[in-house]
Specification:
The longest helix is centred in the N-terminal third of the chain and has 7 residues. By secondary structure, this protein is α/β, with parallel strands linked by helices. The chain has seven helices and six strands. It has a four-stranded mixed sheet with strand order 1-3-4-6, with no helix packed on it. It has one domain. Bound molecules: iron/sulfur cluster. The site of iron/sulfur cluster has 15 residues, from α5. Iron/sulfur cluster binds next to α5. This is UPF0260 protein.
Length: 167
């Protein structure tokens, strides 16, 4: 049986200016662990894809998590960003706050998510804004909420009708 779980993590954030990388220096995401990053660096890892804001269901027997295409009503589906980021935890108490520790445990995060990738020792994708310097490169790469068909949650939907393949 499937039950609602972890509707979203906290990182469908507002855009944050990328920390500066000095010429010749390795960028912080290649030299620091997630736990060593400062707030500005941590925030800049979020590419704003918004995929973590899709509702999910968890199998009560196996704990397996399945994505649905139902997105949080606070998500701006034209940008993938949260419409009320500062108040996300008040608006949606189940909005999970991602931490360095949880990034390595949340295997349900999208495979493109920078937190998941770095926690696993992988590199950032070539379209990541920290690489391109352009936040629009995410949409141009057809990654995120804006690249898939989604349904905005209205509190009346049976999520099991909206299951999608893993992201
Ligand atoms: S899935 Fe990862 S990169 Fe995408 S919005 Fe959520 S935290 Fe940010």
């Amino acid at each position: 049986m499937l039950k609602p779980t972890l509707p979203k993590s906290y990182k469908s954030s507002q855009e944050v200016a990328a920390p500066k990388v000095s010429n010749g220096d390795a960028p912080f995401w290649e030299t620091k662990t997630l736990a060593e990053m400062n707030f500005e660096e941590w925030e800049s890892l979020c590419d704003g894809c918004g995929l973590c804001c899709l509702n999910k269901l968890q199998d009560e027997d196996t704990d397996e998590i399945a994505y649905t295409c139902v997105v949080c009503s606070y998500s701006d589906v034209t940008t993938g960003r949260c419409k009320d980021y500062d108040n996300r935890n008040t608006n949606v108490p189940t909005c999970v706050q991602l931490t360095a520790e949880l990034a390595s445990e949340f295997h349900w995060l999208p495979t493109t998510c920078a937190y998941r990738l770095l926690a696993a020792g992988a590199a950032l994708p070539s379209w990541h804004p920290l690489i391109t310097g352009d936040p629009k490169s995410v949409q141009q790469a057809k990654v995120g909420l804006t690249a898939i068909k989604v349904v905005v949650d209205n509190g009346q939907l049976d999520y099991e009708d909206y299951l999608i393949d893993a992201l």
